[in-house]
Specification:
Blueprint (H helix, E strand, L loop, with lengths): L1 H4 L2 H23 L7 H17 L5 H17 L1 H8 L5 H12 L3 H8 L3 H12 L1 H14 L3 H24 L18 H13 L9 H16 L1 H20 L5 H22 L10
Length: 284
């Protein structure tokens, strides 16, 4: 078991094994016929990931590619997973936490208080930086021949993803975006592009903790350890994602705080379990 947890595809395989009965139960209870093709794919992916992780010397290029591809695919399953255990969305509870901690509703009021296009557009651009930030750091490490560190990075973001996805399954939160845009948020090309991507690629019930913030935090911490110059850029992007998601009305502030904690813990576990070193190429 320990050797599987040290391997990115081992983490993925264990996650798919645990969530398979949830997925099946969600489809049975929801009667979502369109979701049934997911079942054999999910089962085959879980078995394949566990088999590959158990190999004595699996090819790390293949491991890295499969791990990175798996993150958005597993995310797409979230709506079927939270059909199994959840009896409703938990937005009222999360919003109560929000108001208790902050004294107001940042996701609804922040943009109105600072309704400036010159602020809004960079924050939305920072929010969009999440997508390249997931893939660029491990690919850069791999291209430089530092496959061990690249695999460590994949392990960290997979752990963060798995933790978030499991919470989504049992504690689904829609997020403020489903209740209309914030009052006074400026319109601009970056905001329109962000909305277009979210409308076509987001999963319902996947707001708390913020997977955006969890993965960005994990990436920033890992990069600061493994490739410091990129780590500085990722840290700035992480802060932009944290503020931009709330300003744009995509997440509650507590979503971002919880996501940051998940990301910090995931990076720490990845570095500890995988034994990555901070400098010098290690190859395979």
């Amino acid at each position: 078991m320990r050797s599987l947890v040290r391997h990115p595809l081992g983490v993925l395989g264990l996650y798919l094994a645990v969530t398979f009965p949830l997925l099946l139960g969600g489809l049975l209870s929801g009667g979502a016929v369109s979701g049934w093709p997911i079942v054999p794919v999910h089962l085959a992916a879980g078995g394949g990931a566990l088999w590959w992780a158990s190999r004595r010397d699996p090819d790390q290029w293949v491991t890295l590619a499969l791990a990175l591809v798996a993150i958005p695919i597993a995310y797409a399953e979230v709506p079927w997973l939270n059909q199994a255990l959840a009896s409703g969305y938990r937005d009222p509870l999360v919003l109560a936490w929000e108001r208790t901690l902050t004294g107001f509703d940042p996701s609804r009021e922040l943009a109105g208080r600072f309704s400036w296009l010159w602020l809004s557009e960079p924050l939305h651009l920072a929010y969009l930086s999440f997508y390249p930030a997931i893939y660029v750091p491990p690919i850069v490490l791999a291209v430089r021949g530092r496959l061990r560190e690249a695999t460590t990075t994949a392990l960290g973001i997979l752990i963060a993803s798995v933790v978030c996805y499991l919470v989504f399954a049992v504690f689904p939160v829609q997020g403020p975006r489903y209740f209309g845009p914030p009052e006074g948020v400026p319109d601009g090309p970056m905001r329109r592009l962000t909305l277009l991507i979210l409308e076509n690629g987001s999963s319902t019930g996947a707001a708390f903790p913020s997977a955006h913030m969890a993965l960005m935090t994990a990436q920033a911490v890992l990069a600061l350890r493994l490739q410091p110059k990129m780590g500085v850029l990722l840290t700035l992007a992480m802060l932009g994602v944290g503020v931009g998601a709330v300003y744009g009305g995509f997440h509650y502030a507590v979503d971002m705080a919880a996501g940051a904690l998940v990301g910090l813990a995931s990076a720490w576990f990845a570095l500890k379990l995988h034994g990555a070193r901070s400098t010098g190429p290690t190859g395979k």
